[in-house]
Design brief:
It is a single chain. This protein is of the alpha+beta class. It has one domain. The chain has helices at residues 52-55, 72-86; strands at 21-28, 32-33, 39-40, 43-50, 58-63, 66-71. The strands form 3 sheets. The chain has a two-stranded antiparallel ribbon. Strands 2-3 form a two-stranded antiparallel sheet. Strand 5 and strand 6 (66-71) form a beta hairpin. The radius of gyration is 17 Å and the shape is flat.
């Protein structure tokens, strides 16, 4: 959604795309059978924008199809947690 900032607390009016940060997410639908019997998946793109002030402090992420606005520092913590889950136990 580009008509307003992804930060629900931001009241800055959208003027043009030259300022702020854009976030592009791809979502795939569940496979559906097509006319030839093959299953096809549709990929949809969603764009979200943070105003300049908000983007210096926040990021937008998508988890299980839900868009969230979180503080930048939380991204580092989330990445470390994901790395811990992926690494084999010693």
């Amino acid at each position: 959604m580009l008509s307003k900032c992804a930060n629900p607390n931001c009241i800055t009016r959208f003027l043009y795309l030259g300022k702020g940060t854009l976030f592009l997410f791809e979502r795939s639908s569940d496979p559906e059978p097509s006319a030839d019997g093959e299953a096809s998946t549709t990929i949809r793109q969603q764009m979200h924008r943070l105003e300049t002030f908000c983007s210096s402090r926040l990021v937008v992420r998508m988890i299980r199809g839900t868009v969230e606005v979180i503080p930048r520092g939380d991204v580092v913590l989330a990445q470390r947690e994901m790395e811990k889950r992926r690494s084999p136990l010693v």
